[in-house]
Input
Amino acid sequence: MKNLEQHLSEYAGYHRDQRNILTHYFGIPLIVYAVLCLLSRPMFDVTLPVVGEAVLSPALFVWLIGNLFYLKLDLRLGAVMVVLTGALLWLAQPLAIQSTFVWLAASLGIFVGGWVLQFIGHYYEGKKPAFVDDLMGLVIGPLFVVTELGFELGLRGELQQKIEQNVGPVH
Output
């Protein structure tokens, strides 16, 4: 399995233009939110021994599996991803309980809007999206956005240096 630096370097190789990265700051969260909205149905009310009453959905399982992957790559970034994607999962619930038409139309609209932003960014970049060559790009994209925001805040400088050594600086 690739490590954090390898995954992020591979993904970053498709994202060196600041305009492309900027579109990803908005597009990727919209896509993640839309997927969680779409997967928040069906909902199952269950009673769990330790937790008590809970609502289970396919979105919860996708959230759990994705975040276990992020935590395995890096505990600090994984913890941030748990919180941020957890907030998106929580925000998906109000949309998921709407009528089927409202839920589906809004979720698909947000999904398409997020992808439009992605493709605008890749137009600036002059490169195809990373997932075209490796489907893992769909999983690494959200982590890349969080990491890039961290770099802009002056965090994880050693990781930023390693990635830039591998694929060059952002321009």
In short: The helical segments are 4-12, 18-39, 58-73, 75-96, 100-125, 137-152, 157-167. The chain has one domain: 4-167. The mean pLDDT is 93.
